Amino acid sequence: MKLYGSYTSPYVRRLRLILMDVKYDMIDAPTSSAEGRAILRKLNPTMKIPMFEDNGLVLCDSTVIAQYLHEKLARPYLSIPQLNLLKIIDGITDSYIQLFLLDKSGFDTTDDKMYFNLQHERIERSFKYLENVVADKHISATEWNYLSISLYTSLDWVKVRKLHDFSHLEAIQSFYTAVSHRKDVKSTGIPA
Ligand SMILES: N[C@@H](CCC(=O)N[C@@H](CS)C(=O)NCC(=O)O)C(=O)O
Hints:
Layout: E1 2-5, H1 10-18, E2 25-28, H2 34-43, E3 51-54, E4 57-59, H3 62-72, H4 80-104, H5 114-135, H6 146-160, H7 170-180, H8 183-187
Parallel strand pairs: 1-2
Antiparallel strand pairs: 1-3, 3-4
Residues 9-11, 31, 47-50, 61-63, 97 line the site of glutathione (GSH).
């Protein structure tokens, strides 16, 4: 099994966390480097990470890769309502990835422009929604599964990149603090 990605990507980190006790090869292929892009170009038309390869099967989306791995490792995957929550977490993550790339491309993403406003509204509404979900314990630090892993990796990415301050959201902040102490979370931390 080969996982292609970077050590900074929140999507790749989710898979690194579910593969903690499994033998696999991690291939460093960041989308921001020419070398990384050359590796991805050979197999992955989306040119996004994570990408995963096993016995000639190439998968290029974290949700699909996670489903494949849970089936292969005979672990229970997420229910439909949990997958829906995962997509709300992904909504925030994807919007911030877009804003991050736009910012790196020289745009001022705080400008009052339709595209930027759409991302900001999605992010704000999704954070408020997830605050209630976490307060109601539908995602919890004590239930370590692909959903809690995904929420944590996205929260940590937006925090480390200084993209979003969620400290006023009590349930999310407590979840984040509790999970931060985990050994596997520490060992997969985003490099400075
Ligand atoms: N839906 C994809 C999203 C993956 C994604 O956006 N990855 C980012 C890195 S965290 C990426 O490859 N960005 C490069 C680009 O958008 O060109 C998944 O869940 O795997």
